[in-house]
Amino acid sequence: MLHFTGVPLQTLLQIGALAGAVVVVFYILKLRRRPVAVPFSRIWERILRDKEATSLFSQLKRLLSLLLQLALLALLLLALGDPRPQANLVEGRNIVVLIDASASMQAIDVAPSRLELAKEEVKKMVRGLSGSDRMLLAQMDAAITPLSTLTGEIAELEAAVAAVRPTDATADFARALRFASDTLSGLPSPEVIVVSDGALGEPTDAGGQVRLGDIKLSYLPIGKGSRNAAITEFSVRRYPLDKSRYEVMLEVTNTSDEPLDLELSLLGDGQLTDLTRIRLKPKEKLPRFYPNLSGASKTLEAKLSLADGSSDDLPADNRAYALLPERRRARVQVVSAGNMFLEAALLLDEYLDVTFVDPQRYPAAASFDVTIFDGVAPSVAPGSGSLLYLNPTGTSAPFEVGKEVLDDDPNYRLGFDELDAKHPLLRYTALSDVNVARAHVLKGNKEDRVVGRSYKGPLLIEGRRSGVKFVALGFDVRESDFPLRIAWPLFLLNAINNFVEEDTSYISSFRTGSVWHIPASSSAEVASLEQPDGTTRTVPIQEGRAVFLGQHAGFYTLRVGAAGAQEESMFAANLSAPEESAIAPAAELKVDGRGAGAVSEFKIGVRRELWVYLLAAVLVVTAIEWFTYHRRVTV
Question: 162: closest CA among 139, 178, 182?
């Protein structure tokens, strides 16, 4: 039994009745004869007598012409109805194809690449769909992106295959399977086909193990090689006390089963600064540390290649990028009646823009990153930035200044008896033997941190009030031997660097495959983001951060504001995913303990769609009509 899945049968009958009537009318009009004047009627009378002898045959010929035209009309109407057998409507499959577009699919162990080969295989599946099958194509990377509807239209599916693009991210297999499961929920004959090299990890997320139930799972493995070396870590930071110099840490991994001879290049601002030859054993990781470098002011890049000049099977992880923190001048306000040791220490850093203010004239008419209160603790004015208190006095300090303690015990010297040696304030310093004549014990809140403590109480604390950082030293440095030591200027510069966050916490690059929150002007709602390939897109800004799911490695440029008054900043992103660099293809795929089967039942050229054959019949009947007309059979 046939069912019309296109134009309904009732509509087809109405169209057919109207169109058939029009054909018959035109046929009748064709039979009307027009009078023609002839010079001698007796000759034509003989011809007409012969014509009358064959009138029955002529009528039959004309009737054949009408029947052919009506047959053409009937075939066209049936094609519009798209008739399909009942069995086809019940047995059609609903298929979701997940095409892996993660970084490992850029491997070139198969020509031209794993992803391109995967796309060709999916095209074969699309062309082999039966007339009742429906398919949805989705790209699987850090997100899941549907590229088509659930359809049987070949043109739409082939366009979806062409839209697949590679990314430098890991595939979120669990999210992709949940998407496929939700799409196929309640549909007959559901099937999920995974086209991948198998470097997908366990399909587990916050919701636990993914379960497909009665959905059929099929797997099409792609790839065959495994020779690869990768840069799996790359970071950089400036030295806190000399921002013209920096250090680099990176890690190189051989993910293959054979030893590799490699060349590792380091480039600063596009210029080669170091070239090293290394040999890695199978599965070996080698960390590299480059201290005390200089010359680059903004960008750093690491490149990895085989020593013979050729490329391994995955070029995507052979490059890594980092951005040096900006060497901007920190604006420092010093509120002091005069302190030679303090003024001298601040002159040591060329990247400090220092303004001295008498306590009676505080605040200065400007905005600052850091304010140093020397011997005073006034009410903090807006624009003062982070706060450093030296020997605070008064009641306006954001902590309690305790009673004065003296160095009057002959058995114990007043100084630092306990120190938080790992705190950034104490980097490169030694304060355990500092001697203090008199001091005040500082009492902060419960969440404040004690950095240095004497046997009589805390002398150095740090904390935060209403989002503003502060550090407090409980004695006058002029009443100690602290300023006579190299630790004194180091302590000051460490405090300022800690305030402006230009220390080891600086993130020199983002990791691909995650949502990035990039600092931006909080007054704007959107920003323009230029990607590594030169394309530009608009991204939203939320709470002073531009939000973007990054899936490509390289350097990015973020622009905020109107043309001509834009704020521009750069940042870098890296793949840094050892699981993607391990490119040996997996022959099997398991989900919830169940192995995926092989892809089958796709035969190119077989389409159980009757409308295709009906259109072919239209062409055949048209050809017959043309032939019989020109052979004077139907006229």
Answer: 139
Which helix (H) or strand (E) segment is 438 a member of?
strand 438-443
**Does 458 sit behind a cis peptide bond, omega within 30 degrees of 0 on the bond before it?**
no
> Do the Cβ atoms of 234 and 322 come closer than 8 Å?
yes
Tokens representing residue 545 in the block: 């951060």
CA distance 572 to 574: 7
Place 255 in a pLDDT band, splitting at 50, 70 and 90. very high
Give the DSSP letter of residue 373: E
pTM: predicted TM-score of the whole model, two decimal places: 0.66
Nearest residue to 313 (alpha-carbon basis) of 102, 156, 112, 519 = 112
For residues 138 and 150, what is the distance between their CA atoms, to the nearest angstrom? 10
Convert the pLDDT of each residue in 36-78 to its tens digit.
666 655 555 655 555 544 454 455 556 777 777 777 777 777 7
Query: Tokens standing for 181?
Result: 């499961």
Q: d(Cα 383, Cα 380) in Å, to the nearest integer? A: 9
Beta strand ranges found along 447-535 (DSSP E): 449-454, 457-465, 468-473, 510-511, 514-519, 526-530
Burial zone of 617 (CB within 10 Å; 0-12 exposed, 13-18 middle, 19+ buried): middle
Instruction: Return d(Cα 508, Cα 506) in angstroms, integer.
Output: 6
Distance from first CA to last CA of the chain, Å, rounded? 39
For residues 139 and 165, the answer to whether their CB atoms sit within 8 Å is: yes
Asked if 127 and 157 touch (Cβ cutoff 8 Å), the reply is no
Cα dihedral across residues 176, 177, 178, 184: positive or negative: positive
Q: What is the DSSP letter of 484?
A: G
The SS3 assignment for 24 reads: helix
Residue-wise DSSP of 127-195: HT--TT-EEEEEEESSSEEE-S-SB--HHHHHHHHHT----SS---HHHHHHHHHHHHTT-SSEEEEEE
Rounded Cα distance between 134 and 37, Å, is 67
Could you tell me the two tokens for 510? Answer: 């983002």
Q: How far, in whole angstroms, is CA 139 from its chain's centroid? A: 12
Within 8 A by CB and 6+ apart from 171, the residues are: 100, 101, 102, 140, 141, 142, 196, 199, 200
Tens-place pLDDT, residues 322-340: 988 777 778 999 999 999 9
Q: Which two tokens stand for residue 509?
A: 């690059």
Identify the sign of the CA torsion 389, 394, 397, 402. positive
Torsion-angle region of 459 (φ positive above 0: left; ψ -120 to 50: alpha; else: beta): alpha
- Measured between alpha carbons, how far is 234 from 376 in angstroms, rounded to an integer? 45
